[in-house]
Every structure is written in C-alpha cells, then in structure tokens.
Amino acid sequence: MERVLRRFSVAQRIGAIILLLLAPLATLSVVSMAVLNRQEMAFRDSVEESLHTLLPLSTLEQLLQRAMVDELEAQSHESVPDFASLTDNIDHTFATVETSGAGADVPMDRLTAAQQAWVQARPSVQRLIEQVTRSQAGDGDVTAALSRRELSKAISDVRDARKHLAAAVKGRYERAAAMRHRQLWWLVFGWAITLAAAAAMIVIVLRSILRPIHELGSSAGRFAAGDMSARLKVRGRDELSMLAEQFNAMAAYWEQTHREAMAEATVDALTGLPNRRRILALLAAELDVHRSGQRPLAVFMVDLNNFKSINDTYGHAAGDEALVWVAERMRAVLREGDHLGRLGGDEFLIVLPDTSPEQARELGERMAGAIASAAAGSTTRPTIGLGLATAPEHSWHMATLLGQADQDMYLGKRRARLDRNDDVM
C-alpha cells in the first residue's frame, strides 16, 4: 500500500487526507439528518394516528359514563350527545386501522380483539341510540326503559374495545419505536465504521509521508555521526523519493571523498603502507591490548643502507623505486596480522603482535637475508638495517620502545661498519 501511495506526490496525498476527513463527515451528516427527519415525521404521524384512533372510543366511553350518572341529559331537557355520529366515526376508525394495519408493524391479534370487543359493544350502543332517538320524539315510556344495566353493559363493552384498540396501537408504536432504535444503532455503527475506515486510510497516508521523513532523519543522524555507509531506500517516485536519491548521491560522494581524505591522512602515497600517524596509532592500540593481557609484542625499526648514495647517484626516482622495492620485500616476509608502516624518509616501523624476542630475531634475520640476497649485484637495490625492542622486556611505553629499537638499529649499523673495516684491514 505504501509503495502504491508513494507513486503520488505529497500534495496529492495531503489532499487525499482532507478528502478522507470531509467526505465521510459530509455524507454521514446528510444521511443522519435524513434518518432523524424521517423518524421525527414518523413519530408525529404515530401520535396523530393514536389520537384519531382512540379519541372516538374514549369520547363515547366518557359520554356513556356521563349518561350513567345523569340517566341521560335528555331527561333534564338538555342536549343529547350525538352517539350515532360517534358510532359511525368508530366504525370508520376500525376500517382505517384494519386497512393500514395490513403491514407487519400492527399486531393483528390485538387489532382482532379490539374489533371483536367493538362488535360486542355496538348492539348496546345501537339500542342506546334508538332509545335516545325515541326519547327525543317525546316517548316518556322509552326514556324510562333506559336502564342503568344497559348503560353499564355499553360502557363495559366500549371500554373493552378501547383497551384492545389501545393495545393494538401501542404494539404498533412499540414496533415502530424498535425499528427507529435499530435505525439509530445502524446509523451509529455506520458512523463508527466509516470514521474507522477513514482514520485507517489517513494513518496509511500519513505513514507514507512521515516514514520517509523519519528514515531521512535517522540516516542523516548516522551520517553526521560518521557512518558514511548510511543510505536510504527509494520506494516511489514522489518528492521524498527524489530527496532520498539526492541524499544517497550526496552520501556516496562524501563517502568517496572521506575515503580519499582518510587515505591521504593515513596512507603513504609512495609505498601504499600506513604513514607515520597510522603506524604509530596501530602500535599504541596493540600495546594497550597486549598490556591488558600480558602478551608479548616486538617492534622493529628499519632503515635502508646506502639510500643516500642511491639518491645522489641515480636520482630521486631511483630512490623512490628503491623504497617501493624494499617495502614489497618486507611485506612478503611478514605474517598475517603484522603491521608495516613508513615513518618517513628511508625509515620503516614493523609491529609484531604476540611475538617473543626469539621469534622476532628469527623473523628479522630471515627478512634481512631475503632482501640482501635479492639486492646482491644491484647498485640500486639497498639492504636494510634492523633495530629490535620487545615488550614487556624493555617497556610497555611506546616512546621507550621506539627509542630502544632506534638505538639497537644504530648499534647494529655501527657493528656492521666496524666489521667491514676489519675485513678491509
């Protein structure tokens, strides 16, 4: 996913983040408003339907209760309620509820019970209507025939019809309320899922932006700390990928420059050996290691015999060639792990780790003999003089060891000159 996103620019991905934030919020807001408005309208319609459905039966029950108390207002020469109109209204209400209740939101068992109760109540109400009608015509006997028993039965039947109808309306309302509750839960669930998906996509997009920046900072920190091998992975074609490529190119250039600078600072340009700074640093490091472990170490100071004569007679080019030739011969005799460096001029330093004095002398004799044999008969190939110092016999201090090796080398040269003078005499 990140590699795919890295094909787009940072600006495009930031635009995608904004879109992922605004689009779900706008969509969900519109959907939420629509659902809530629909529920509000459904609730209002449900309340109005409940009033229109139950009001006729409630009014009829109330009027019958009043007639029960007053034994009909007609007897006191007051106006008589319009029972016939209420009865027709109730019949129309049941017809309407039955037609609209064909769906699954009306409990049909309760609606049927309400209709049956009204069927039982309607004869008593009808007789009451007939009696009231005759009473209005002036029939006093009919008025007297209106008994409390008839009123009580009519009231009871109407009350039963109202209760059953109220239960049916309540069941319909409860089902509608449950459906609205489910809609709200689905709406909340939709909000949660949509926002979670948007958040996940935003995290992925932000990661595709922030991860390369973090890697760039980490690699730059490593590079600043001296790790010239620090590089970045190029994963896409966006601005950050171009920056990574430029960083890698810069790091490669500085690594090469650093390598060349270090070579110039630590390598002798003529012989390719460690220069004075480098060989003395290697000697100091080996002394620390061998002193802590009490292991033997040997040092040879080396210079070339008759080097000045070669330079004066054949020129500096011949002298440089002689230096390179001697360096190669000494390197061929040394073991793996031994160090050879040029101190300057025609002087070299050899560091022999884990080497006893006897082993060092044997190696020095072999080296001097090999070079003398190779130089025999050549006026441009010099021999070498060696001076030995060992630790811990002489010292663990570098300056003392170098002084001892230098002194031993000049003592050896002096002995060699004396021996040549004796041979001449």
From TrEMBL:
One Pfam family hit: HAMP
- Which intervals hold domain HAMP? 207-259
Locate the transmembrane regions by residue number: 14-36, 184-206
Domain (GGDEF): give its ranges: 295-425
Q: Name the EC number(s).
A: 2.7.7.65
Query: Its Gene Ontology molecular function terms?
Result: diguanylate cyclase activity
Task: Kindly state which keywords UniProt assigns to this record, in alphabetical order.
Answer: Membrane, Nucleotidyltransferase, Transferase, Transmembrane, Transmembrane helix
Reaction it catalyzes: 2 GTP = 3',3'-c-di-GMP + 2 diphosphate
Source organism, top-level taxon: Bacteria
Stored PANTHER family: DIGUANYLATE CYCLASE DGCM-RELATED, REGULATORY COMPONENTS OF SENSORY TRANSDUCTION SYSTEM
Read off the NCBIfam families from this record: GGDEF (TIGR00254)
Protein's UniProt name: diguanylate cyclase
